[in-house]
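Tutorial handout. Part one gives the primary structure; part two gives the three-dimensional structure as tokens.
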Amino acid sequence: MPEPLMFSQNDPRGNTVTKTLKQIIAEMEPQHRRDQALIRKCIEGITEYAGQHAKGFPPEKLAELRVFVEGLASYWGLEDFCQEKIEQLYLRPFDERVATAGTSAAAGGSTMERCTAAVYGLIRHCEEIIYGGDSAEKPYAHETIGLMKEIAGAWDFESDVLDEQTARLEASVQVLGEPVMGGMGQ
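Part two.
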């Protein structure tokens, strides 16, 4: 049996720690599950936003939001990437909520709770895009930030933390994909 692949890194005290890929994945799994739960709530918030504002949106906007919801579910591996489950659990409820456009909030939480979940889920999603470091993702990162601002503005969600996070994300997107000084070829 081959030896497991080992990775080394320094801990906060400067000590070198060596772990197997299996150990690293086991440490990351709880955070990934929390992120997935946040993204599920984010999708509920985007769905509510679309439903409350659908009568004022052109059909293209609703189609864009629906595609964005599908992309979020797929990106985060919700429902083990099963398209049928994504359709059933996220896209069908989106379509149903849009069909009841202009009505009061759907069951399952207040508008402010859904707004908060949508905004913070979009922040987390944008962080993940930026962390990937691919300059081809810049337009998607800008789209995510734009949707975050749009939802926050529509629901009068104001926060110094949101302003700071938005500024941080926008600055990070500007340098997305640019070489880091001291990297390869420097």
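Part three, for discussion. The first helix runs from residue 21 to 53. DSSP finds six helices and two strands in the chain.
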